[in-house]
């Protein structure tokens, strides 16, 4: 059951920036690549686990006339070359901060989906002076409570499960990873077209990278860090895959608990959209994002 629901809140993205103070041979491998489109206020778009910039295509089309969109693709996901050593999200966060500084982006808006939302929370809480508003698309500061259904779930409790999951994925082939993704596709998206694309991106991902990132997500709790975020935060939840409407209050409370310490944060749910809100309810998502950016 744990594996079946693992993909509800996971899904992925990479530029290659490092500290100028390090010598070339000391710099860590770049954890991401970037494609830039449009002109105007900078927005950084971070996809979820095993995804790439294709998840943002419609949003980019709508926003690029007035915004400069920095689309991230993480190493090891959806065809982007994996690193020699397992990808570490904490290192990606440091590299994203360096990217913002090197390109002189003025408090860019951070929009992340699922795992990408986790990265946005980590970046905004670690480097609050560098970042602008945060929009989390069905992603949280701590993943584990989504599966345990308990906000009191601790990192210590998740350590054995995380190790098991990492080993499980390390033994997979790319084809098996795609098949595993396909089995849980009903909670991710409604349309057959987008289900096919999600499966395709999974089949182009590196299983070892996927396992390492899942383990990191299950054992990294940012709830005690997000109070440092200085800019407004919008958390958008997807409730379309819930088996019963009676579950809505509990799910909403679980999400709300994760952002309670952020000074300026609000939560909104779409009860029709599944995990990939950008495909299930694109007009609603666009309206939420544009209104929030303008506020």
Automatic annotation (TrEMBL):
- Does the UniProt entry include the keyword Isomerase? no
Keywords from UniProt, A to Z, are: Hydrolase, Signal
Q: Which InterPro entries match?
A: AB_hydrolase_1, AB_hydrolase_fold, AB_hydrolase_sf
Q: Which residues form the AB hydrolase-1 domain?
A: 43-287
Q: Pfam families of this UniProt entry?
A: Abhydrolase_6
Q: Hydrolase as a keyword?
A: yes
Give start-end of the signal peptide. Answer: 1-24
Highest taxon, organism lineage: Bacteria
Q: What is this protein called?
A: Pimeloyl-ACP methyl ester carboxylesterase
Which organism's genome codes for this protein?
Answer: Rheinheimera soli
